[in-house]
C-alpha cells in the first residue's frame, strides 16, 4: 500500500511545539486553491490541512514558514485525535520546498 501526498499551497498559520521526548515539531496550516477538471467540468478545489514537520531535518526551513509563504509539501496522511476527541486528517511532512 502507498500513502503519499504532494500539496501546493499557502501557509496561513505556524506553531512550534516540543514533545515530552524533546523532539521539535512545527505545525503549519496550508491552504490550497486551484481548479481541476472532473467529468469534463471545471471545478473549484479548496482545502485547508495541518502539516506536521518533525525533527531536526526541518530546522533550516521552519524560520521561513510564515503566513503568506507558498510551499510544496510531500508526505503521508494520518489520522490525529484532538484533545476534544474529534479526529482529523493531518499531513506528516517528509519534504518541504519554499516556492516564494
TrEMBL record:
Sequence intervals crossing the membrane: none
Gene Ontology cellular-component terms listed: primosome complex
Pfam families xrefs: SSB_1 (PF22657)
InterPro entries given in the database record: NA-bd_OB-fold (IPR012340), Primosome_PriB/ssb (IPR000424), Prisomal_replication_PriB (IPR023646)
Any one GO MF annotation of this record: single-stranded DNA binding
UniProt similarity note: Belongs to the PriB family.
Description of how the protein assembles with itself and partners: Homodimer. Interacts with PriA and DnaT. Component of the replication restart primosome. Primosome assembly occurs via a 'hand-off' mechanism. PriA binds to replication forks, subsequently PriB then DnaT bind; DnaT then displaces ssDNA to generate the helicase loading substrate.
HAMAP family: PriB
Protein name from the UniProt record: Replication restart protein PriB
Species: Shewanella algicola
